[in-house]
Design goal:
Length: 202
């Protein structure tokens, strides 16, 4: 009977490839199908693979799990194969893969966030400042952590402290700083660090 030898995130972080040590009968499934057909997800938390997740065979020995929206699975979690579902592709084979599980591995070359930050070079005296990183890539379809910092307040330490505090309280990819916080005629330098769910940062 085929044995599940490895389960690993793809580098794009949007799927897992499950590899068997020999060719299977693909559980007599083709195209895209519900992952419950081949995986035992009864003990997995709700939304483990994401809403709308699907499975497909990439080859007779490779099963691809494509995540749906808001998956929670991370490297180190365990995937379980359904009993009496997958068997060898050999014509004379009758033994099903049984009691098969594997720990999900991290990708070989995980996607790193690619920051896309939109902000004006200068603002008017009565304008708020908006820093918008909503177009940043590399999330793998999950929420990322955005950390803004500010420096070079032109000696206006009070303004720098107030802006730093506002940035520290921000949790979204987009931050709007009210004009009342902005010092007049000063140059400010903002830095953004983005981290995805695997801890990869840019």
């Amino acid at each position: 009977a085929p044995e599940k030898t490895e389960s690993q995130f793809t580098d794009l972080l949007n799927a897992i490839l499950v590899t068997f040590d020999s060719n299977t009968d693909k559980a007599e499934l083709s195209g895209s199908f519900d992952c419950h057909e081949v995986l035992n997800l009864t003990s997995a938390p709700s939304g483990f693979l994401g809403t709308g997740a699907s499975c497909s065979w990439q080859a007779h020995h490779v099963l691809k799990i494509t995540f749906g929206s808001s998956p929670t699975v991370v490297p180190g979690d365990t995937l379980y194969l359904r009993e009496t579902k997958v068997q060898s592709a050999h014509d004379l084979a009758s033994l099903f893969a049984s009691n098969q599980s594997s720990v999900v591995l991290a990708p070989n070359k995980p996607t790193v966030p690619s920051i896309v930050l939109s902000a004006p070079d200068q603002i008017g005296l009565c304008d708020d400042l908006t820093l918008d990183a909503s177009a940043t890539l590399g999330s793998g379809g999950r929420a990322m952590t955005y950390t803004y910092t500010v420096s070079d307040g032109g000696g206006n330490s009070s303004a720098l402290a107030n802006i730093s505090l506002a940035l520290a309280e921000a949790t979204s990819h987009t931050v709007t700083l009210p004009e009342a916080l902005m010092p007049r005629g000063e140059k400010m330098e903002f830095t953004l660090t983005v981290t995805n769910f695997l801890g990869e940062s840019a």
